[in-house]
Amino acid sequence: MRIILISLAFNLYWFAAVVGQNSFLPLLVLALIASMFIDRGVIIAIPLFALIGISGDAVLMSNQILMFNTPFLPLWLCLLWAGFGAYLWLIKDWVLEKNIGLLIVAGAFGGAMSYLGGERLGAVSFGQPYWVTAAVLAVGWAMYSVVFLALLKYFQSKGGAWLPTRSVSVKK
User: Angle at the Cα of 19 (from 17 to 20), degrees rounded to 5?
Assistant: First the structure.
């Protein structure tokens, strides 16, 4: 049930980012803050996964595969990557129980489909033919999936040792 609720929440987040874009920025930020109360590991996951995704989208934008009506990646897209990082972190236990090959295929397909859906909703334009862009996005998302899964496995292997502690040492 937890996976369903978190997935529903992320789909609403995606929709708010893609359709609402800049008009829903405060809502997107509040949702990210709320995710930190669910699992404090999100504090590490959000910037890490967002940086990877934003870097990839910047490369796609500079190569005129993705086109936005701004000279830089729009803030709503950066927050969408942050939200995806939080989402992935919050479902990590469920994800890591699945077949890695299936996850990479699902990531390639699902990630590419999210951009194709965003294009249909007017959030992004493609600078290359539709099928070329779809193929580039699928390959990119397959690579993201490999990297994200490796990072999730790494953090899982460390337990919570990498998390900042809340305790304060007092000198005597």
Answer: 65
